[in-house]
Amino acid sequence: MSETAETYDEGEQGSSDLNRAVGKQVKLLRERAELTQRELGDRLGYSEDLVSSLERGRRTPQREFLEAADELLQARGLLKATAEDVEKARAKARVRHPAWFRDYARLEAQAVEINDYSCHDIPGLLRSERRIRALYEMRKPLLDEETIEQRITSRLARQDIISRWPAPSSS
Prior knowledge:
- The protein is an all-alpha fold.
- The chain is built from ten helices and two strands.
- The protein has helices at residues 3-8, 13-32, 37-44, 48-55, 63-72, 83-94, 99-110, 129-137, 145-158, 160-163, and strands at residues 113-114, 169-170.
- Helix 3 (37-44) crosses helix 4 (48-55) and helix 8 (129-137) runs antiparallel to helix 9.
- The radius of gyration is 20 Å and the shape is elongated.
- 18% of the residues are buried.
């Protein structure tokens, strides 16, 4: 298992559980309609591999897929009803922190005062996207582009802390 998978897995548990549950519903409805994954994919304009990945919970279904599958499989709104929850879980999964940092991020979000000392760099909450990107792109060992984007998104999401009301005092 890669370092990224090891340290970020726990944060994705809720969305992957939801993806598996929705995938089981899609599979059950598809089998009731006596369609293969290929046939379902062809009728909806998706590949057989995508349908397979969705049914196994490995991919997050898009709203468009859920709505089209609901109609085709005559699910009477069952799949459409999951679309909003799936989108919320996807958004939540985008903001991930490494396991070793998760407790700090949780406490930081609740803080009324944040103290930081750094004599060589800008504190993490105040870094620009450009600076964050530069730090991750020069990191050794090198990270793949998807991992860099996930980490930048997580870092920038933390900056909501300094724009909330009341903002924590900082020194």
